Each structure stands twice: as structure tokens, then as C-alpha cells.
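(Fold this chain)
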Amino acid sequence: MAGVYGKGKGGKKNNSGRGLRDLTVKVKSARGRRASSTKWLQRQLNDPYVSRAKVEGMRGRAAYKIMELDDKFRFLLNGARVVDLGCAPGGWAQVAVPRINSLGEKPGKAVGTFLGVDLQEMEPLPGAEFYVLDFMEDDADLQVKEWLGGKADVVMSDMAASSSGHKQTDHLRIMALCEAAAYFAFDVLEEGGTFVAKVLAGGAEAELQRLLKAKFDKVAYMKPPSSRSDSSEKFVVATGFRG
């Protein structure tokens, strides 16, 4: 899960799972642990994508979401310049780095760049640049543009707001993050570029869709197979930025 957006510190740089689990793990309630926490822990222990991430050395199950999105829409291309907002713990970066060839390991192919921003510090990953920054702070977008040093081919957002326990409030918060990421994408994307963002179903997507349809050739929504069926999350993928 990407860093939760609220207060943060700025400017510090640091460098299908079917078959993986045959037995269901049951978690007993413990003193001091809420029922919701017990349910979450049991779900984590029995999630095939969590198990797969551990086996394959991925930083989280979210890696498979961007993998499945890119398999369908093909935006992580050799030589692509990618900005990832809300990038912790770095699972999306693990998928993107080899696909955009940011380590130059594919002879004769263009070499890409990956820049990630989050509230949390992350373990370094070869081929990626990670920065600690609250993207919702004043002028944070200007700082990211400075680090980027030019245009981007892909802007991705996995930013999430801290849960309030009220579904509609949480929906509005994450839509505000999506819109902030979209306006940033309008500023930095090359013509033909792609915008990808996590959203929560809840009825306020119309404004974001209107914004994106005015700027991109195609706007699609997808719930990747690795996204939990009981989750309201889905992803918007806007391709063919018109500038």
C-alpha cells in the first residue's frame, strides 16, 4: 500500500497466485485486538497475492496490480520516463524498472527513468529514484518537476488517504488526490502520454472522468484480478494525452 497522505516531510532523497497456498489459516481473536484487525490479518495470511509477493521477492501485492494494468494497456515501454506518486513501498517500481529498461539491461533499447514520491522513506531500488515528499503540500508539484527535469511519458498515482471509517468521506478524499495527480500530469506529460490512478467507487468519479476525457484520447476503468473482490478500488487509465 502506498503512503497515506496527510502531513509529511519534504525533499529527502533515498535511494494470479493460485496454488501458492493450499491451507486456510485461521486467526484467533486475541485480547486487545479488534475484530476488524483479526479479520484483516486472516485475510492477509490467506491472500494468494500476498504469498506470491513473498515468494517472488516483491515489495507488496500492489505490484501485481500495475503489472496487470500494463499487460493490458502497454504504457511501461522501453525508454519511458515515469513518475509514481504515492510509490511506497516500491512494488510498482519493481515492475516498472525492467519494463522501461531504466538499468539499460536490454542492449539496443532506449533507457527509461523512474522517479517515485511518497511520505515514507523506502529501501533503495536500482534503476529508481525515490524522494520523501508530501505531494499535497504547497509547491510540491514544482519540486517534483525540478527533480524530473523535463517531460514524462507516464504519471501514475497510488496515493491513498487515511481511512476515516466513513465510505463516502474516504471516496471524496481519494478523488481529491486523483484530481491533484491529474493536474500534475497535464503539466508534465508528453503528447501521447499515459495517466494511471487508483480510485474508489462511490459516485464522484464523473468530474475526474470529465477532466481526463478533455485531455486524453481514451479513458478506461479497470479492476485488476489482483485487486481484492471486496475492495471498492479500481484504476483509471487515460491514454493518448493531447497536450
The first strand starts at residue 4 and ends at 5. The chain has seven helices and ten strands.
